[in-house]
């Protein structure tokens, strides 16, 4: 897919962050849009921004990606509203800061349902439409935490490793079958979005932070250097070159190198750093 002009893309989590960046970048290149988000206000703002910056057709749907029937209904509606559907960006995601022992089953189910099952539902709901278009692409957003494990991020790691494996296997299956559809796994580093502020925190993590979780998340986000618009540009370039994996940001490239050079011993470095941080805090 060398050009997005005249194509149609569906994007989950389009109400903010990378999803909004993708919507605006695609619209500027003449790509029609089917947008969804669980946040009605954010989604409406994205639609308004797209309409003010372009003349492409844009439709929207309030949607929880953890709702399988809702996801399939949205895919059907997208097909009804647009002639063909060429891309699905499974972008919606949430975060959970919790140690494995401290994480509640409810929180674990919440993050898995959104981060993993949401990607599965989006992929399966849209795949027949992408095949029918004759020129399709599935873009699944994993994370740098889909490359390495990090303490307090076990659940998030699990979902993002799962997205990576799911997407890589899918890509291989599509190639074996010589389908007119491809798949790309995307691994962003720190992006200036509100995912940290919207995250859930276990009681143990709240005590460890020692302050209001939202305030701590805001400070943490200041360390992020990559903007959603820049991330969207990198993703779209990856789609155009049919990349199997897309890394976003200098931190993502550094973590990828570490994972390749020290596939298991990197854990010792993380443990040593965490212990030092805890000693300094006490």
Strand order of the largest sheet: 3-2-1-4-6-7-9
Global Rg? 19 Å
Number of helices: 10
N/C terminus separation: 54 Å
Count of strand segments: 9
Which strand-content bin applies to the residues? 5-15%
> Could you give the order of the helices and strands?
EHEHEHEEHEHEEHHHEHH
Largest sheet: 7 strands, parallel
Structural category is alpha/beta
* Overall morphology: globular
Topology:
Layout lengths: L7 E4 L5 H12 L3 E6 L2 H14 L4 E5 L5 H14 L5 E4 L5 E2 L7 H29 L2 E6 L12 H23 L4 E8 L11 E2 L1 H7 L3 H9 L6 H13 L4 E4 L1 H12 L4 H16 L1
Parallel strand pairs: 1-2, 1-4, 2-3, 4-6, 5-8, 6-7, 7-9
Description:
- The protein is an alpha/beta fold and 282 residues long.
- 53% of the residues lie in helices and 15% in strands.
- The protein is built from ten helices and nine strands.
- Strand 6, helix 5 and strand 7 (181-188) form a beta-alpha-beta unit.
- It is globular and about 60 Å long.
Question: How do you describe this structure in short?
Answer:
This protein is an alpha/beta fold. Helix content is 53%, strand content 15%.
């Amino acid at each position: 897919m060398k050009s997005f002009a005249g194509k149609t893309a569906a994007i989950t989590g389009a109400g903010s962050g990378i999803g909004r960046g993708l919507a605006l970048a695609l619209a500027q290149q003449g790509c029609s849009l089917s947008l969804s988000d669980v946040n009605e206000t954010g989604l409406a703002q994205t639609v308004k921004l797209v309409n003010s910056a372009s003349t492409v057709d844009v439709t929207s749907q309030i949607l929880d990606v953890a709702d399988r029937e809702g996801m399939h209904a949205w895919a059907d509606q997208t097909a009804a509203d647009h002639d063909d559907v060429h891309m699905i960006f499974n972008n919606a995601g949430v975060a959970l800061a919790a140690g494995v022992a401290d994480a509640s089953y409810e929180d674990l189910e919440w993050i898995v349902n959104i981060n993993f099952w949401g990607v599965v539902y989006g992929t399966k709901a849209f795949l027949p439409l992408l095949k029918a278009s004759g020129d399709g692409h599935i873009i699944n957003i994993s994370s740098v935490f889909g490359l390495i494990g990090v303490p307090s991020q076990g659940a998030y790691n699990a979902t993002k490793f799962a997205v990576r494996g799911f997407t890589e296997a899918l890509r291989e299956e599509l190639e074996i079958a010589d389908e007119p559809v491809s798949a790309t796994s995307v691994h962003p580093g720190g992006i200036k979005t509100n995912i940290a502020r919207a995250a859930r925190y276990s009681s143990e993590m709240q005590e460890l932070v020692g302050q209001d979780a939202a305030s701590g998340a805001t400070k943490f986000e200041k360390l992020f250097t990559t903007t959603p618009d820049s991330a969207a540009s990198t993703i779209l370039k990856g789609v155009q070159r049919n990349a199997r994996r897309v890394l976003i940001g200098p931190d993502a490239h550094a973590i990828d190198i570490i994972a390749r050079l020290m596939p298991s011993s990197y854990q010792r470095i993380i443990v040593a750093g965490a212990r030092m941080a805890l000693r300094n805090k006490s």
